User: Fold this.
Amino acid sequence: MAEERRLDGNAIGGVMIELFGVEMTTVPGSCGNCGAHEQMAETDVYLDAPGIVVRCRHCQNVLIRIVRGNGRTWLDLSGLSSLELPL
Amino acid sequence: MAGTAVLGRLAWLVTEVTGALEETPRVRTLLLDAEGWPGHRPGQHLDVRLTAEDGYQAERSYSIASAPGEPLSITVERLEDGEVSPYLVDEAREGDGFEVRGPIGGYFVWEDDGRPVFLVGGGSGVVPLMAMIRSSPGSTPIRLLYSSRTLEDVIYREELDARAGHGLEVFHTLTREQPSGWTGYSRRIDNDLLREIAWPASDDPQVFVCGSTRFVDAAADGLVALGYDPLSIKTERFGATGG
Assistant:
C-alpha cells in the first residue's frame, strides 16, 4: 500500500552522509515549488520508487532523487531551492 | 583509495555478533562488537550491510537499542518479505560477521534538558525510545505510551516493568488481543487516549514518536490537536515491508 511505503528523511540519514559528508537529517531545505522550509527528517521519503525519492511534505513536489548503481550515484536536487549545510 | 578516505566519516565497520536475545517470536536483539565504533546518542540508528557470496549486497537501517556506553545492540523485527531482517532475527549467530556504519541521524535524538519526555512507540518503534529510557539518569520524568498487537508482541516487557517507577511511567495498549484480566488500554492510539496520558502541552515536553507511518501520523496529529507545538514532536517512520 502506497501510504505504508511513505517513510521520512530519517530513513536516508546514512545515504545522505555518504553524499554530503555531514549529518543531514537536521539540515533545513527549501522546497522549490511551495517554499516550505523543513529539516530533511521532515520530508516524505520513498525508498522503492525505484531509487530514492524525497518529496515535500506540504506540496508533494519531488525535492531529491537518488539512484545508485554501477559504482556511481545519480543525484537530482532540482526540486530544492536551497539547503543550509553546517560549515 | 583517496576517495574512500574522504568518506571515512561514515565507514563500514566489520562487526561481530557477540550475543543474541529473543525478545518476542518475531523480534531479536543482537549484541554487536564493531571495532572502531565511535559511540552514539540515544535515538540514532545504524545501517547494516550484508554481502552474499556472489557479491550481492543489501543495506537496511536499524535503531540502536543500547544506551551510550553500553555494549552496542540493535533490536530487529522480522519482516516476512525482507532481505536482511530474516537473517538477523533467525540466522545470525554468535561469532557471525557483517558490516555496520553509523551512528546516523541527528533529528530523532534525545538530549536531556530536564523537560518532561513523552515517548510514543508502535511495535518495534519502541527500540530507539528504549535507548532513551536506558540512557535516562532517572531525574527527568518520562512517560512511554507503547502500542503492541498482543502481550506476546511487547518488546522489552520485563525490563520496562522493572524500570517503571524510577522517573518512568509505562502505559501499554494492546490493539488486537488482550489477556484476561488486562488492565491496560485495548485500542489503537486516538486523541482521547493521548489526552489521558500525554503531559499537558503547557509542561513543554519533548516528544518522540516512532512506528509505522500510519501510527506515527495518527499520534502526531493527535498531539497537535491537543495543542502540542508541531516543532516539539520528533517523528520517525519505518517501513512495514522490505526490511
Q: What stands out?
A: The helical segments of chain A are 2-5, 13-20. Chain A has a mean pLDDT of 94. The first strand of chain A starts at residue 7 and ends at 8. The longest helix of chain A spans residues 13-20.
